[in-house]
UniProtKB/TrEMBL annotation:
<protein>
    <recommendedName>
        <fullName>Transposase</fullName>
    </recommendedName>
</protein>
<dbReference type="InterPro" id="IPR048000">
    <property type="entry name" value="TnsA-like"/>
</dbReference>
């Protein structure tokens, strides 16, 4: 969809904003600004997705690491109400089961009353459109630390199919991370592949429990 189009809410449900549309506004960058905008290379779709702050970046990273997410659009559309108020949600996320969740990112301690009202209005509108709605804040710090580390290995270049097959076989029985990696081969060669498999959830750990280390229990994902 090129340019800007207005349409009734009931017609918006069928639009795949992650495929059919561009962001409705840009991501300004200027001297002295307090937030840090940028682009995240979204491994799921191999496209760059914009964010306006590091808090948004971390939530975008979590969407990318979620195997249920098949597409994301940033700043997907502008909601307008008859009283003149309007709002641009942060993310449109499409899932593998066909459902959609609209995400607003704002730390819990930075929501003035006027914005809380907009979020509440947005939730009502999104539900009416057949979408889910979530307002999220700062990502859990342990989960964020683990995802930031693993995200460095999300690109396909980190995958060595032969090593991956050996790792999946090795971790068919749960065991410590480094022990299993060493059993497969030189950790300098094996660990990048292991981290790639963890990012893509082909190997499984509890990323919210503790920061990854040599002793973290790892197992192959159930088929």
């Amino acid at each position: 969809m090129d340019g800007t189009s207005r349409l009734p809410l009931e017609l918006a449900h069928g639009i795949r904003f992650d495929v059919d549309c561009e962001p409705v506004r840009s991501f300004p960058s200027f001297r002295g600004q307090r937030n840090f905008p940028g682009l995240w290379w979204f491994a799921t779709t191999r496209r760059h997705i914009g964010y306006e702050s590091w808090v948004e970046r971390d939530q975008l990273m979590a969407l990318d690491a979620n195997p249920e997410t098949v597409g994301v659009a940033s700043q997907p559309f502008r909601l307008r109400w008859p009283d003149g108020r309007h709002h641009v949600p942060d993310y449109y996320a499409r899932r593998s089961d066909g459902t959609v969740v609209i995400v607003d990112v704002r730390p819990d301690d930075r929501i003035p009353e006027s914005d809380a009202e907009l979020f509440a209005r947005s939730e009502v509108v999104c539900i009416a459109a057949g979408w889910q709605y979530r307002r999220v804040g700062v990502l859990d710090p342990v989960l964020a630390a683990n995802l930031r580390w693993l995200s460095g290995y999300r690109h396909p270049r980190a995958l060595r199919p032969g090593v991956a097959a050996e790792l999946l076989s090795c971790f068919a029985r749960e065991q410590p991370l480094l022990e299993g990696a060493t059993a497969v081969g030189d950790p300098l060669v094996v660990l990048p592949v292991l981290f790639h498999l963890l990012w893509h959830r082909r190997l499984v750990v509890d990323l919210s429990r503790t920061v990854l280390d040599d002793r973290t229990a790892v197992s192959a994902a159930a088929l």
